[in-house]
């Protein structure tokens, strides 16, 4: 029996590059990451995360959030945020 199996996938080139950059900072290769993913699938007997199709109310809320993202206030420190929250 072969000690290794080969897997060939078609990916968006930018996705591949972005993911490989992240994996590089973690010190693992794409092949090692895929092996880890497959091991988790076997362990969980399915995908190691939940996949949901959002209901219409959630979809509308997500769309509204995207439309309003420029209106969001940002804070430089947690303390600044907490001070603002104390005013509520």
Summarize the structure in words:
The N and C termini lie far apart (66 Å). It is elongated, with a radius of gyration of 21 Å. It has four helices and no strands. It has one domain (13-86). By secondary structure, it is an all-alpha fold. The mean pLDDT is 93. The protein is 58% helix and 0% strand.
C-alpha geometry = elongated
The helicity comes to 55-70%
Give the biggest beta sheet: none
Q: Mean pLDDT score, rounded? A: 93
Total of domains: 1
Span between termini: 66 Å
Question: What is the CA-based Rg, rounded?
Answer: 21 Å
SSE inventory with pairings:
Layout: H1 13-26, H2 30-44, H3 56-68, H4 78-86
Q: What's this entry about, in short?
A:
This protein has 88 residues and is mainly alpha-helical. It has 4 helices and no strands.
Keywords:
single chain; 88 residues; mainly alpha; 58% helix
